[in-house]
Every structure is written in C-alpha cells, then in structure tokens.
Amino acid sequence: MKKMIMVLAFIAVAIGNAAIAGTGGGEVDKRIRKAFEKEYAGAADVKWYVFDEYTKVDFTLNGMQLAGFYSKDGRMLGVARNINFSSLPLMLQMGQRKNYKDYWITEIYELTNGDGTRYYLTLENANKKIKLGSTGSDWEVIKNQEKQ
Hints:
By secondary structure, this protein is of the alpha+beta class. The protein has 2 domains: 1-77, Nuclear Transport Factor 2, Chain: A (Roll); 83-148, Roll (Nuclear Transport Factor 2, Chain: A), CATH 3.10.450. 24% of the residues lie in helices and 41% in strands. It has helices at residues 2-16, 30-39, 90-99; strands at residues 44-50, 55-61, 64-70, 76-82, 104-113, 116-124, 128-134, 140-146. It has an 8-stranded antiparallel β-sheet with strand order 1-2-3-4-5-6-7-8. Strand 7 (128-134) and strand 8 (140-146) form a beta hairpin. The longest helix has 15 residues, at 2-16.
C-alpha cells in the first residue's frame, strides 16, 4: 500500500509538471502497448511518451482526454483526467473554499487505479503555489512553494 501511494504521488508530480522537458524517448514496450489496446479499445489521438521510470500515453476515449501511466513491466499505474471543480466531492469543494479562498485554481484532475481514486488540485496566489491531494474527504498538502 505504501509503495502504491508513492507511485501515485510520483504520477501526480509528473502530471502536475507541465514543464516536462521533451517528450521522452525510446520505443514503447510491446507489453505496454498490448495492455493499453486491450483496456482502451477504440481510443483515438494516441500519443506515447517513454521515460526512464514509466511510460505515459495521452489519448481520447468517449470524448474524454485521458493520460495513462504504465510501469516498465507493462502494469497500469493509473489513468488521469482533468475535471471541473463541480466534479469534486462536495466535502473537497467546501474544504477548498474554506481553507484556500484567497487562491485561484490552476489545475484539477483525478487519478484512478486499482486502489481507488485520488483528486489533485493546484492553487496559486501572488506569492505561493500549492498542490493538494485527497481520496475524497480532506485535502493534504503535497507541495507548497514560494513564487520567485
């Protein structure tokens, strides 16, 4: 369980970093491609990115833009999608409004895998950028950084 939380945190940081340098490199492992094609038959606009620790695939399915993450051995780590604030559980909406009312939202997404669904929210104000994560009841701070 602890290992899976670390993997999810790693994926969250990877998704949250819009400034990933380059598109990765290398050939997509056949096991990964086969697992993807089986799980997401009918996916369109498929784009692969191979990194040292994982492989990412961006794709569209049923009108939704998704990002899938696979381990080097072809195991699905999770799938992410951007969501609207209104799609968050009510407790998370209320928690954000209560505790972070002086921040604007720059990113919201959910990450789903075999262990369930986690929500991620990136907030900013003039001085700070905060990344929050939750399984659905309370927000926890994942990253808190001062702007320069």
